[in-house]
Amino acid sequence: MKRILSSILAICFCLFAVSSVTAQQLSLSITPPLLELSIKPGKSVLIAYTVGNYGDPAALRAKVLPFRAKDNHGNIVIENEFSGPVRFSLDNADIQMEQPFFAKSREKKQLLLRIRIPEGAPDGDYYYSFLVESQPAPGTEGVSSSQAQGTIGSNILVTVTGSGRIDIKGKVSRFEALKGFSLNLFGKKIKVFDSTDKIPVVLEVANDGKNMIKPEGDIVLKGNFDEQAKYELLSQNILAGSSRILSATPSAELRRPLKEPVSLVLSGFFLGRYQLSTNISFGEGTPNIYSQTSFIALPIKFIAGFIVAIFLTTYIVKKLKK
User: Fold this and answer.
1) What is the chain's pLDDT, residue by residue, as a tens digit (322 residues)?
2) Phi, psi torsion values for 70, nearest 5 degrees
3) Which three-class secondary structure state does DSSP give residue 274?
4) One fold for 24-137+147-160 and 170-304
5) What is the CA radius of gyration of the chain?
6) Rounded to an integer, what distance in angstroms lies between the CA atom of residue 13 and that of residue 176?
7) Which of 264, 201, 198 lies closest to 233 in space, CA to CA?
8) The domain 24-137+147-160 belongs to what CATH superfamily?
9) What kind and span of H or E run contains 314?
10) Running DSSP on this structure, what letter comes out for residue 12?
11) Where are the domains of the chain?
12) In this structure, is the dihedral angle defined by the CA atoms of residues 207, 212, 217 and 220, taken in order, positive or negative?
């Protein structure tokens, strides 16, 4: 009995000796989430951002870093160091760039971001992210604090142009149906699918110009009897010197996801030869670009099953006759 009481007292002593642990919750928001600007050298603009803290009180810090396109899926990479001719500063009286400021729970802070283009800045596009990140608070003696850390950002797409002209050079770099198998027909490669297959389609547009482009258009599916289905392209930015796989709507999802995103997934029962075409515009006064591809759909699984059924039936009949 004495040993049991001693063990209980020892456990209680250890529990009281352990430092208390506190966990912090962090939930931030920022508006506007995206900013597109066209500015002449020597000019500046003032943008009012609203940063909301919906978690526990936290110390925050604002900064700006450039970013670049990571791949053709629309992902970006934020650089570790600042570069480029665009200058950023905060016009707030009590908040400075790269300096911590305090935000209470459910408090909204207005950050006045000044964007300035120096004289002589080269024409072109410059891409940045206005970032607000949490800062670790100093711990209290005897208290182990579990600090929630995070960053929220708003992308800034700046086009510097002294003349007001925009360099637009877009082209279709890839337009095809994925999966299936290729068939050489009259010197051309055509994809062949089963009539019941879901057919993924990829439309990739490359931007060879110095400025961002925003393609508009559609993908049209045309069948053997002039039946048509039109799929509108979603509005998506393509950064200068990059390419992107565009998305169209409405679409569907594959049961087995592909390794790469697709623009459109066609579903239904297909039979015969089909033509896919796209007509893309980059804005008023710019030439449209056109591209097309095709595929063939056959009831391959049905034919294969029918042949197997005939073979088995013939085999069974011969066995019965013997």
Assistant:
1) 445 444 433 434 333 333 334 456 889 999 999 999 999 999 999 999 999 999 999 999 999 999 999 999 899 999 999 999 999 999 999 999 999 999 999 999 999 999 999 999 999 999 999 999 998 765 544 444 455 678 999 999 999 999 888 899 999 999 999 887 777 766 777 889 999 999 999 999 999 999 999 999 999 999 988 889 999 999 999 999 999 999 998 765 555 556 678 999 998 899 999 999 999 999 887 889 999 999 999 888 888 887 888 888 888 888 888 7
2) -95, -40
3) strand
4) yes
5) 30
6) 70
7) 264
8) Immunoglobulins (2.60.40.10)
9) helix 300-321
10) H
11) 24-137+147-160, 170-304
12) positive
> At CB < 8 A and 24+ separation, what contacts does 178-182 make?
178/202, 178/258, 178/262, 179/258, 180/295
- Contact 132/30 with Cβ under 8 angstroms? yes
CATH 2.60.40.10 holds for 170-304:
yes
Q: What's the token pair of residue 84?
A: 């480029």
Is residue 272 within 8 Å of residue 166, measured between CB atoms? no
User: pLDDT (tens digit, 9 = 90+) per residue, 8-28?
Assistant: 334 343 333 333 344 568 899
Q: Which of 238, 230, 233 is nearest to 216 (CA)?
A: 233
pTM, two decimal places: 0.80
Cβ atoms 135, 103 nearer than 8 A: no
DSSP-assigned beta bridge partners for residue 127? 157
Pair of tokens at residue 312? 């088995």
CA atoms within 13 A on the CB side of 195: 12
Q: In this structure, how many other beta carbons lie within 10 angstroms of the beta carbon of residue 93?
A: 7
Instruction: For tokens 């400025």, name the residue.
Output: 211
**Spacing of C-alpha 154 from chain mean position:** 14
Per DSSP bridges, beta strands 124-135 and 151-160 are: antiparallel
Exposure of 281 by Cβ count < 10 A (0-12 exposed, 13-18 middle, 19+ buried)?
Answer: middle
